[in-house]
Amino acid sequence: MKDHELRLRALGIDTRREHVIYMRRDCHVCRSEGFEAQARVAVNLGDQSIIATLNVVNSELLAIGEASLSTGAWRALGAAQGDRITVLHAPTLDSLSAMRSKIYGHRLDARAFNAIIGDVASGRYSDLHIAAFLSACAGGRMSLEETIDLTRAMVDVGDRIDWGGVTVADKHCVGGLPGNRTTPIVVAIVAAAGLIMPKTSSRAITSPAGTADVMETLTRVDLDVPAMRRVVDREGGCFVWGGAMPLSPADDVLIRVERPLDLDSDAQLVASVLSKKIAAGATHAVIDIPVGPTAKVRSEEDAHRLQNLLEQVAQANGLKLRVLRTRGSQPVGRGIGPALEAHDVLAVLRGAAAAPVDLRMRSLVLAGELLEFCGHSIPGKGRSEATRLLDSGIAWEKFQSICEAQGGMRVPGIAPIREPVITEHSGFVSDIDSRRLARVAKLVGAPGALTAGLQLHVKLGDSVQRGSPLFTLHAETTGELAYAKHYLATHPFVTLGEAVAT
Amino acid sequence: MKDHELRLRALGIDTRREHVIYMRRDCHVCRSEGFEAQARVAVNLGDQSIIATLNVVNSELLAIGEASLSTGAWRALGAAQGDRITVLHAPTLDSLSAMRSKIYGHRLDARAFNAIIGDVASGRYSDLHIAAFLSACAGGRMSLEETIDLTRAMVDVGDRIDWGGVTVADKHCVGGLPGNRTTPIVVAIVAAAGLIMPKTSSRAITSPAGTADVMETLTRVDLDVPAMRRVVDREGGCFVWGGAMPLSPADDVLIRVERPLDLDSDAQLVASVLSKKIAAGATHAVIDIPVGPTAKVRSEEDAHRLQNLLEQVAQANGLKLRVLRTRGSQPVGRGIGPALEAHDVLAVLRGAAAAPVDLRMRSLVLAGELLEFCGHSIPGKGRSEATRLLDSGIAWEKFQSICEAQGGMRVPGIAPIREPVITEHSGFVSDIDSRRLARVAKLVGAPGALTAGLQLHVKLGDSVQRGSPLFTLHAETTGELAYAKHYLATHPFVTLGEAVAT
């Protein structure tokens, strides 16, 4: 075997995020290179190369001359059992100096962000480095210039779709309101109006479901760019997971670390949202910022700051942007969780009698705004046009056609384990804590378990009687159900006020 | 097998820092609990419990009903092959809200720091969380109050040694000057003077060697508190690795993450240094802050800020502190790396003709200051007393006695691979970049490889002739030697100015 060569043997260990290489402590490469556990090393196979973190094996798990890779690293290298890899010290990353400079509170220029984002997108940063970078950029520590440069860097590191100069509509909700699943409905209406809306969505970051998670219960969402283009050319719109395409690829890496940190800062949020829109070729975007005490944005002041930042970064990048601030005092619709939210979306599109009115109204407001913003409707007439397209069934037909074009429409499942949570008091619903509710939905399995989550039976101001159900937990495993109930015992999210005497 | 039980099987994988548990994707616990890769789980064995990160196994590496642990987790639980463990969701950490609050730029109170540091010390934080916390506390984002609270929290989470009311001397150098290994010499002089100096030192964080790494080449340093007490009772001083004793245990966890981030902020530095001193029972401490363009502290302004912070936090914790700012324009002594620095220390103690004068002078200044500060010498007479104790051989005898009391004195090794680096020009040494030099010493293997590092043959202002050696690289492996030379090719650290015509 050559100097730095090792033979690959599959162990099938999934580390999810960070690539890991397994090497014997006494292997000739470890010894000659002086590698220790947690060293960052360059792993080369043919003309592929990745950076991985070393875990040292002190046993006969690997034979002399053998090494293994985590399943993600294995895939990234396109490895096969027995392949010969070479392992070297990872190159020194000059961008880490820039990262540290940011941690120490200095301003970074465009070159520094390009270097950092380039290394992040190529997987050269460990999770530790990414966590430190995210933390250093949070809490108002990014200037406007820096946010613009970060956004540009995130666009430039990936592909950019060109739709040939036509108006391209997009929308986004900054989140924080569980169940606020307007995107599939808005796309259906806007595409039904004849506009182009090639929507790419993300999976959940810190919420119980992202639009991509919800749409995955209804159709295929992991399309590549040519497949997406075919769908949009035919139907005008699509619902695609952005993570499957090389648009702002650093964003997906950053999000994988943001999730366990439960972190989502203004600058990262703006760079994440706008880089995806710009890379996807959008020309006109409407952004929904729900404001409420337990939404992601809690005060009008915060909303104002975020709106300003969004508008200025969009303008600097040539994207036309309109921001709508909406009320975010309680969850939207009934279901929370991928499949449960999909059922709500279908009810609105079908005009079902039981369709959640709030989800319908929010969708019509956003679709109406987009129709006006893109020049399809004259000012003041957008919402009535959107309502016509929805109530006539034209949007529902468009939705089904898009799903068919994406590979066929599916019926979302229902969780095998369902347990209603009953109130022991009577009264009026005075508060629903969206953060705790989201936590419960995640504990019960969403978004990993597609049918898990919860279904709300009450809204703010509702009168409830002792013994009536407030919500129903949906779970795929008994362990998750128990875990959510354990949390609920000390962290209720529905507050009841005094019952008015009758 | 009971509901959440799994049988342990050793795989011998060393992940170093973070505890990892390996479980089959299709095991009954993963399924019932809905665990996915990277989930944080609680692992219980008897009455021991740890938090670990889940790596999922998709192969026959583990049989149904089996699980494995990284070697660190295995040790922490005191596990044996075949032991039955139970695995549950990790409890929700309330302190993570406080951590996020800090990331978002808010001030934390004492309770919040106690909660965070308690969770850090117990291993309940993942490396990601620690990296984010460290980053959030860097760059001047900690107020004085916060730094005091963080320091107290770090003291309170561990043990505290009580020396019974006597004066207890301590010293510390904030680092950044490679080779500045004064501690072993100062301890020998101060203990020879009859004072109590129970010195605990750390291993290297971002430098090529810490005092504990250097002393490990000379004697045992992993003593526990009773063993240290026996040494100090007998000899007055000791050289012990602080990480082997439960003094400020969170500090050791934080340092493991600081190292790969190459991060060392003011507040963390002060809390780290002072919490160790306070927990070790020091009453009087002298702190050396070298200031220079490539030292850790680069300007008088930074030194002033750090000095203020050190003094105020010490005062708030009842520790008497004196700060000395020293020149930090170039490395101290000749050797850089654990064994190489030990050889320099021995030369000074023995009064060898070739002993580095700068290391000797710095040690005498610090020892003299401590002798005065602790009331042993009258003001102005400390340095001459220190010189007397050193030159008479009394300090050298004390040094040997302490090493004997710690388990015997060793002779530091010499690296098997040594390669001089020759200058191709003549001139005067106008600059030595300490940061690059430290990087080279680390690339060549220090501090992991005890004999690795480099030996400097020149000092600032020296005249060198073409073909003469500037320094010699010491390596334990050819891979590391090659890696250091590769870096040196583009990052020289010795700059030569114009040769003056003769």
Textual characterization of the structure:
Two copies of one chain form a homodimer. Chain A is an alpha/beta fold and 502 residues long. Chain A folds into three domains: 5-89, Barwin-like endoglucanases (Beta Barrel), CATH 2.40.40; 169-243 and 273-405, Nucleoside phosphorylase/phosphoribosyltransferase catalytic domain (Pyrimidine Nucleoside Phosphorylase, Chain A, domain 2, 3-Layer(aba) Sandwich), CATH 3.40.1030; 417-497, Aldehyde Oxidoreductase, domain 3, CATH 3.90.1170.30. The first copy, chain A, is built from 18 helices and 19 strands. The first copy, chain A, has helices at residues 28-33, 71-77, 95-103, 110-121, 127-137, 144-156, 183-192, 211-216, 225-235, 249-261, 266-279, 300-316, 338-350, 357-373, 382-391, 394-405, 434-443, 478-490, and strands at 5-8, 13-14, 20-24, 40-45, 48-57, 66-69, 84-89, 169-173, 197-201, 237-241, 284-291, 320-327, 335-336, 417-422, 427-432, 453-456, 463-464, 469-475, 494-497. In chain A, the strands form five sheets. In chain A, strands 1-6-3-5-4-7 form a six-stranded mixed beta barrel. Chain A has a four-stranded antiparallel β-sheet with strand order 13-16-18-14. A three-stranded parallel β-sheet of chain A has the order 8-11-12, sandwiched between helices. In chain A, strand 4 (40-45) and strand 5 form a beta hairpin. In chain A, helix 11 packs parallel to helix 12. The first copy, chain A, is globular, with a radius of gyration of 24 Å. At the A-B interface, strand 2, helix 1, strand 5, helix 3 and helix 5 of A face strand 2, helix 1, strand 5, helix 3 and helix 5 of B.
